[in-house]
């Protein structure tokens, strides 16, 4: 069924056999991109000549005798391709083309102007109006078929691209929903990881402990913590699991359980005594035990660095073992800073590794900072690392700043040094401060 217009502009319809008997060999396979063609010409004879060839090739044809009538048809049943005469009374073909291009469509419509014009300037004006191709009148059927085939290829590519864009848009929508879901999960995971360091500041009377944990992403591989050994002794630890993200965060959560402050019976740093009380293992032995656990019970390619300290709050004696973690910084009451430690291998690399212990004696007014490499390996814009010397300068600058205020100021100093507060690595620290002796009276 096709639609035509009478000489008065009325739409008329008539049937078309898309595959007439006896002409099957002359008809191409029904095109996918071009099915409906609009023929616009004020000459009824010209329309019939064009329609005859187009019907024989299997296209659905609509005819219009003016630009105004053609626009109405385009509004009702948008054609895939338009063949329009250039010179028509009233609205010219080039004017109709311009109006056609302004119409909203789901797909692109191909437009061929029929003209006897050959002047380059005229042709250019037709292209500017939105025409895709030109045919010289009288129209040669072979050339017409070739131009329609060219239009078919262009429309096919356009529609394939549209389908792919729709698929991409749909996929992006699904990915966006998935990202939002993952982002919400990561936000919750960050809250859970931060809750592992729920008590950021503790006052033990003679000393204070402050803790900082700042991940470079939602979650990270750093962890700091403390646990009670006795009324006058505490354990401190700083952990940095290799890598970043979810797998590293899961590993820190598991390690937090091995050094639990709430369940001493699960803490590998503690042992139950015959009387039911708990006593500490030496820090070196504890790290060795973690190394064996890590290698024998965990199927992972991660490893981690660790600094474990046994602090006697009554005497200021600190026994530590270092497993690849940065050298802790000791700041004396007079402001001087020194890096202490003996290095050591990270945990989870070599079976049977041993970890050496060392001691530090803290006096009133002294403090000890255990920190991750996110502090000392913080890089300036020129690539220079802060290093131990840079941390010493910061601690000297912050000599009069105590507890959590000191750790918060450390973050500001790192941001000032790097030129950005979005650090490339997780930043964590635990600060032990022995309170100065206040003069009596």
Automatic annotation (TrEMBL):
GO terms for molecular function: phosphatase activity. The modification 4-aspartylphosphate is found at residue 85. It comes from Pelagivirga sediminicola. Residues 36-152 form the Response regulatory domain. Coiled coil: none annotated. Pfam families: Response_reg, SpoIIE. This is Fused response regulator/phosphatase. PROSITE patterns: RESPONSE_REGULATORY. PANTHER family: STAGE II SPORULATION PROTEIN E (PTHR43156:SF2), STAGE II SPORULATION PROTEIN E-RELATED (PTHR43156). Keywords: Hydrolase, Phosphoprotein. One of its GO terms (biological process) is phosphorelay signal transduction system. It comes from the Bacteria. The lineage of its organism: Bacteria, Pseudomonadati, Pseudomonadota, Alphaproteobacteria, Rhodobacterales.
